[in-house]
Amino acid sequence: MKGHTMNKATSQRRRFLSAAALASVTALALSACGGGESASEPIVEETGPVEITLATPAYTGGNNPYLALIDAFKAENPNVTVKLVESPADQHGQTMRTQLQAGNAPDLFYVTAGRGNNQSFASLAEAGYIHELTDQKWAADAIPESAKNLYYDDDKLFAVPADLGPLTQLQNTGVMKELGLEQATTLDEVVEQCKTARAAGKSLFAVAGTSGPNLGVHAMEIAAGIVYAKDPQWDAKREKKESTFADSDWKKVLEQIVEFKDAGCYQDGAAGAGFDQLFPSVAQGKVAAVFAPAGAVAALRAQVKDGSFDVSVIPGEKSEDSRLIASPGNALAINEAGKHKGTTLKFLEFLAQPANQDALAKANGNVSITAAVTGTVPSQFPTLEPYFSEPDKKIVTQPNYLWPNSGVYDSLGTGVQGLLTGQATPDQVLKTMDEQYDRGA
After folding, report:
1. What residue spans define the domains of the chain?
2. Which residues have a Cβ under 8 Å from the Cβ of 438 and sit 6 or more positions away?
3. What is the pLDDT of residues 327-372, one digit of tens each?
4. Whether CATH 3.40.190.10 fits 19-164+327-376
5. Which of 15, 49, 146, 344 is deepest in the core (most CB within 10 A)?
6. How far apart are CA 100 and CA 82, in angstroms?
7. From the centroid of its chain, how far is CA 207?
8. Measured on CA atoms in the order 262, 263, 265, 269, is the torsion positive or negative?
9. pTM score > 0.70 for this model?
């Protein structure tokens, strides 16, 4: 597998493949790193009743989709109880780190690909908190060829992907119709729509101003149509020090957020709003859209039976610049200090089966790994068809998965907070992001 992994010290020097490649290749072999001759570590069967814990971010509305997976596992393993523990979605990463450091973390927990946010697996693995899966053939088989650079670190595997969650606008289409608005095709049109919404006593967008991760998602979605539409390989150039955040179109991204603020695009009190206020605001029709993974639209539809909700993509400066962010970033990892390794490995192996991944993705409202590998346009997201039908051109990798440490993304989130309050300028935010990036892994 040399040449197919990221190095801990220089994670960008081996190219991460995008979800675009993942979606466009129709005949990928889900082969193990090093071929099929590698032996798997024996899974020790535990006798008698066993309870393990699984921690995930809290699901927005309805039942946590992992409950169905747990029930299916229980049907085949009646002696095992899997206890589901949730933490607030925007605090999950820090919660896991705190518990891992304290020695009271769950047996399995949700992580993301790469090392660019505080939920990413790579830095946790480097600290010795995650159980290595390299010798588990079923785990290697679960990684699509085009996603190996997202999951191997120095030729070692530590997590198994669950599904793919595109980053979108979750839109109340009833509010859009009420306002007489069609989908904007340029950022200038978005600004005009903000004014229309304000004149009708509503806001086009709601953001969680106290949640750095939500603001980071918002900024990355704008960047998709500004930075990455013009230069899909910008992150590779940043890694090679051929560009910086400060001297690139990332400045346009942050200036666009300031323009949105000045145009009244965000809800009143946006700077002080919490993550828990987002979905009620769009569900109740107070705002037209929020920024979140596309799968959350299923929860909105389930909660508000008489509502109309869909997903959309914030446009670029020109209509042809619009891009969708989608990467196979949702995953599970095993606590190295857990007491029931045999059972947790068995549960993770159960997840790794394609049929179970498909079922989880459906319950989660996301795109399954199988669908992505075969280039199938997700039936639950017809509005995203233009992107999935031209993935090489119109889908980009989630940027922070490519950044060398979580400080870069944290600085983006807190920086956007500063833009909303007027306590920071785009130049100041970008300078801090560059400083964090240059710290390396």
Report:
1. 19-164+327-376, 167-325+405-437
2. none
3. 889 999 999 999 999 999 999 999 999 999 999 998 888 888 888 7
4. yes
5. 344
6. 19
7. 17
8. positive
9. yes
What is the rounded average pLDDT of the residues 130-145? 94
CATH 3.30.1360.70 fits 167-325+405-437, yes or no: no
Does 159 have pLDDT greater than 90? yes
Strands 203-206 and 160-163: unpaired
Task: Convert the pLDDT of each residue in 187-212 to its tens digit.
Answer: 999 999 999 999 999 999 999 999 99
In 58-118, the DSSP E strands lie at 80-87, 108-112
CA distance from start to end of the chain:
21
Sequence-ordered alpha helix ranges (H) in 183-249? 187-199, 212-230, 234-239
- Tokens coding 195: 């004014």
Q: What is the pLDDT of residues 217-234, one digit of tens each?
A: 999 999 999 999 999 999
- Is the distance from CB of 260 to CB of 254 less than 8 angstroms? no
CB 167 within 8 A of CB 221: yes
Q: Pairing mode, if any, of strands 152-153 and 395-396?
A: unpaired
Q: Which amino acid is at 209?
A: G
